[in-house]
Design brief:
Number of strands: 0
Number of helices: 11
Largest sheet: none
């Protein structure tokens, strides 16, 4: 949603969004204003960071790592904001607590599904290593074994992960409940809900991209509509249109996968397989060795990328789990204080 450049404008291009979310007559202190402003500006900057300069970077494992790292930063920011708001858990609306705890369970389930898929893809590396080992020999028997390993790898990569399917209805549920919660008589509460809305938008967006990438289905992508009053709305809308458009262009091309490093290995396999199958004469020997070298480099790059992305997904899992545990701990403490006072 681009806007033409013009003369100097107030900070809020669409008016003050907090006038809309705060109850009539409420006063937003400079401190609260600064807290939510900084949070939303940071979120906008992350959306800008996530838009790659090169279209070919979309759905590379390094780009997916960046997406997961930025998502983790935002979830850490919301924990910091909750502390800085000085809004004790005992003052939280019961609905806020239910939403937070419910969403955290759903995110943990999604992380488990993603980790399962990354593990499944990583398991294919052993088959690729077997291929490289067998191709290092001039024995015809070893060549037969290498063909068998390539066939097994193709079958493995094309198989479906039942655990991955479990995250799709979860994402559908999160998307359906994506809205700015209404909060009465609490400026701090409204600031908190405004920030949590931004976190949820980023979370649903990134997780839907991962689901689409792993499943190879653009049907899993979401096109979220967000209020223009959010300070990050323009950056998000621009990013979403770019990324979703690129992924939808990739998927109809008949690719085995839209993950770039996995696709590179698949291309190497397709190039190598006929050479193994038909045999290599003296003239083709140099091209054959070059193909083996490219295949090995692509296989190693895929393996390393999957390992690093797995660590980032696990890190996000721990952040979500830690936030959930901290809230439950605070609720227990608040409950004990209440019991002692009664």
């Amino acid at each position: 949603m681009s806007r033409p450049h013009g003369p100097h404008r107030p900070f809020f291009p669409f008016g003050n969004p907090f006038r809309m979310i705060l109850p009539k007559g409420s006063y937003l202190s400079p401190r609260l204003y600064a807290l939510v402003k900084n949070f939303e500006e940071s979120l906008a900057e992350r959306f800008r960071q996530l838009k790659p300069k090169d279209r070919e970077d979309v759905l590379t494992l390094s780009w997916m790592r960046l997406a997961m790292q930025l998502l983790s930063e935002t979830h850490n920011d919301i924990k910091t904001l909750i502390t800085e708001l000085e809004l004790p858990v005992c003052d939280w609306d019961e609905k806020w607590i239910d939403v937070y705890l419910g969403n955290s369970v759903k995110l943990l389930d999604i992380c488990i599904a993603f980790s399962s898929e990354l593990s499944r893809l990583s398991q294919g590396h052993l088959l690729l290593q077997c291929v490289l080992h067998d191709l290092d020999s001039s024995s015809s028997k070893q060549f037969v074994r290498s063909r068998s390993s390539l066939d097994a790898w193709r079958s493995h990569i094309n198989s479906k992960n039942p655990r991955l399917a479990n995250c799709f209805p979860i994402l559908d549920g999160l998307t359906e409940t994506l809205n700015l919660p209404k909060v009465k008589n609490s400026a701090k509460g409204k600031v908190l809900m405004q920030a949590m809305y931004g976190v949820k938008v980023e979370t649903v967006f990134i997780c839907s991209i991962f689901a689409a990438a792993f499943s190879g289905s653009a049907n899993k992508l979401t096109d979220l509509q967000v209020p223009e009053t959010c300070l990050w709305a323009e950056a998000f809308t621009d990013l979403q249109a770019f990324i979703n458009g690129e992924i939808r262009n990739m998927i109809p091309r008949g690719r085995v996968t839209v993950l770039k490093e996995l696709e590179a290995v698949d291309i190497s396999v397709k190039k190598l397989y006929p050479m193994i199958d038909d045999g290599v004469g003296p003239v083709e020997a140099e091209a054959f060795q070059s193909s083996i070298l490219d295949f090995g480099k692509n296989a190693e790059k895929l393996s390393q990328g999957l390992d690093l992305l797995t660590k980032d997904v696990d890190g996000f899992f721990q952040i979500v789990l830690g936030g959930r545990d901290a809230l439950l701990c605070n609720l227990r403490v608040a409950g004990n204080i209440s019991d002692n006072e009664s």
